[in-house]
Design goal:
Blueprint: H1 17-32, H2 39-46, H3 50-62, E1 66-68, E2 75-77, H4 91-94, H5 96-106, E3 110-116, E4 119-126, E5 140-142, H6 149-152, H7 157-165, H8 172-188, E6 191-194, H9 197-208, H10 217-229, E7 247-255, E8 261-271, H11 275-313
Antiparallel strand pairs: 1-2, 3-4, 3-8, 4-5, 6-7, 7-8
Helix pairs in contact: 1-5, 5-11, 9-10
């Protein structure tokens, strides 16, 4: 999933850095799960000063959002932090803490996307060290070829064809290549986006159209321009030369309990990687996608049980 490419945002553009630090500390404790963290670990992981972290944690402890073990001095989430009942929190938000762990493991920003009303929308996005990811939540692309390959690689032939046709007239080389690309993504498990000058220019134009009608005819023709001006993804014989090409993202599908692709997870690369590095990142996002698929199935099961319990209580 690729929406905004190019150089990273300049630092200091966050509208409220103090609030960002509070959120980062809460998210870091959430990522730790049942394992409490020391003040030193929190400061090291988030790269904030000891005095700042101590002041934030003291306030969070006073609100019961965080608890401090008096013996070990370690911190964990407290009982006062709001915990909505199953079904009231979007699945993507449930995956935010694991997404943060993936981000730290691969050393680059990562995001989760889903298809909404004919567009591919980023719904969660996080960068290392509490920074700002290049792909922000809310950014969108038209869901037409070649965008969203990880969503259609597992789809029936008719759905694939509809997705391919939506971009309009394209060159014969592209039309012959795309079915092979989709088959390769299904075998490999993840898609790889090349970073190129034509792609950057098309994305810039697409972002300028982000006015609530991103899936309109102009945006769809721009998607067709990507097909005409770029080489999409990598076929097996091309992988040995992958380090010669800048990469944009590496993306894998997330399935629901019925085996349908409902989301995708993307590593935001924006640099050259060796083939070994690509495979390593690919394996890690595949592991994340597998865990996320299991979490979705569990979430659905818990939601059903919760609603059934409410029904019994209302009798």
């Amino acid at each position: 999933m690729n929406i905004k490419l190019g150089p990273p945002r300049e630092p200091g553009q966050d509208p409220s850095p103090p609030t960002r630090r509070v959120v980062a500390i809460v998210e870091r404790l959430a990522q730790a799960g049942p394992e409490p963290l020391t003040l030193a670990e929190i400061c090291r992981d988030l790269r904030i000063s000891r005095s700042t972290a101590h002041a934030i944690l003291a306030t969070l402890c006073a609100c019961d959002w965080v608890v401090r073990d008096p013996l070990s001095g370690k911190y964990a989430l407290g009982s006062g932090i709001p915990r909505p009942h199953p079904g009231s929190v979007p699945v993507s938000r449930m995956l935010r803490a694991p997404l943060g762990r993936l981000c730290s493991a691969i050393g680059m920003a990562a995001c989760i996307s889903e298809v909404r009303d004919g567009s591919i929308a980023v719904v969660e996005s996080i960068a290392p060290d509490a920074g700002r990811p290049q792909l922000q939540a809310g950014q969108r692309l038209p869901f037409v070829a070649p965008f969203g390959r990880e969503f259609v690689a597992w789809a029936p032939a008719a759905v694939r064809q509809q997705w391919l046709d939506a971009a309009g007239p394209v060159n014969d080389v592209y039309r012959a290549r795309m079915p092979k690309v989709l088959n390769e993504i299904q075998k490999r498990g993840f898609g790889i986006e090349r970073l190129s000058d034509p792609l950057l220019k098309v994305y810039t134009a697409l972002l300028a159209l982000e006015d609530g009608d991103v899936a309109g005819p102009v945006a769809m023709r721009l998607a067709g321009a990507v097909a005409d001006l770029t080489i999409v993804d990598f076929l097996p014989a091309e992988l040995p030369q992958i380090e010669q090409v800048s990469l944009a993202t590496i993306s894998a599908p997330i399935f629901d309990e019925h085996g349908n692709v409902v989301m995708s997870v993307s590593a935001q690369v924006y640099k050259h990687l060796s083939l070994e590095q690509v495979r390593d990142v690919g394996e890690q996002i595949l592991d994340f996608a597998g865990d996320a698929s299991s979490a979705i199935a569990q979430h659905v099961s818990e939601t059903i049980r919760h609603r059934a319990g409410q029904g019994m209580d209302n009798r």
